[in-house]
């Protein structure tokens, strides 16, 4: 596998409303733990849609991994021009900081948001250009935006062997518990 789509929940779906939330660090560690063996097997590109939440945290995890694996590349392929323009200032700063560090940033449509067709076109492109997906999604948490990616990934897996991997809440909780217990040792 050379190119991996990494996505999942938007921050608000996890009740995360600022970058100081402890859960973000655990999510990034869970992502990094899944990415590292793939990088050692030859993974070259991490690709995300760049939405606020797991997408941006995956980029940050990739930047950390690039320190040990300099050949790793990270990109965002957004659906439309200026996807962050309606975000709060703190989130805009984070997005722009991440974009500056990317190996590639592009948009499927070179105009501002004008319809769901842009999101559909982006997702179609992401699935065409990647060999698999790492999805942070937990059905037990209830329906969320990642369910569309899961459905599409499983369809593509059945048709042409697309690789589907996921991270659930239990995996992130396990990392949090391990860190909590280590702090008391």
* Average of per-residue pLDDT values: 95
Question: Main β-sheet, in a few words?
Answer: 6 strands, parallel
Order of helices and strands: EHEHEHEHEHEH
Secondary structure: number of strands: 6
List keywords for this structure.
about 180 residues; globular; alpha/beta; 6 helices; 6-stranded parallel sheet
Quick overview of this protein structure:
By secondary structure, this protein is α/β, with parallel strands linked by helices.
Structure description:
The protein has 185 residues and is an alpha/beta fold. It is built from six helices and six strands. The protein has helices at 22-40, 54-66, 89-101, 116-129, 146-160, 169-184, and strands spanning 3-8, 45-48, 73-78, 104-107, 132-136, 163-167. It has a six-stranded parallel β-sheet with strand order 4-3-2-1-5-6, sandwiched between helices. Strand 5, helix 5 (146-160) and strand 6 form a beta-alpha-beta unit. The protein is globular. The mean pLDDT is 95.
Write the layout of secondary structure elements.
Blueprint: E1 3-8, H1 22-40, E2 45-48, H2 54-66, E3 73-78, H3 89-101, E4 104-107, H4 116-129, E5 132-136, H5 146-160, E6 163-167, H6 169-184
Parallel strand pairs: 1-2, 1-5, 2-3, 3-4, 5-6
